[in-house]
Specification:
Number of helices: 3
Strand content: under 5%
Distance between the termini: 153 Å
Number of strands: 0
Order of helices and strands: HHH
Structural class: mainly alpha
Largest sheet: none
Helix content: over 70%
Length: 143
């Protein structure tokens, strides 16, 4: 038995198949479909195993980097929604301040009107008491 065949039988790993999976098997879910990113380049003299391992790792990291960038885009969308909500909150607060000011103005008008009515009523009572007193005085002077 050859070395790889003996290793496969002892570990259960099919190394030729593993190399195919890492190195360029064409399936829709395989990382091998992705070309190497521009920021890496194989060095001269690197072994096939080293090159395949490096490719697998860099592809895995590249997938993670793209997912991180996607999260950044989602974060930007969330920030825009927050900004819109903040603008709506400021509009609502301004409306509340205006409504509170209108209530205070109305309270001021009602306060004055009630006190004016109270003063008028007091004047009417005084006038009535004066007339009544004069009528009583008039009745006592003629008798």
């Amino acid at each position: 038995m050859g070395g790889i065949e003996q290793l496969r039988n002892s570990t259960g790993v099919n190394f030729p198949q593993l190399e195919t999976d890492i190195g360029g098997r064409r399936s829709e879910s395989s990382l091998a479909l992705m070309t190497l990113p521009q920021y890496v380049e194989h060095q001269d003299g690197v072994t096939r195993a080293g090159a395949l391992s490096a490719e697998a790792v860099v592809r895995d990291y590249e997938v993670a980097a793209k997912e991180i960038e996607a999260m950044g885009a989602e974060l930007i969308d969330a920030a825009k929604k927050c900004e819109a909500m903040t603008a709506d909150v400021h509009t609502a607060i301004a409306y509340m301040h205006n409504t509170a000011a209108a209530y205070r103005e109305e309270a001021k008008k009602l306060f004055k009107r009630i006190e004016d009515c109270a003063l008028f009523t007091q004047d009417v009572r005084k006038a009535c008491e004066d007339i009544k007193r004069r009528m009583m005085e008039g009745n006592t002077t003629t008798s």
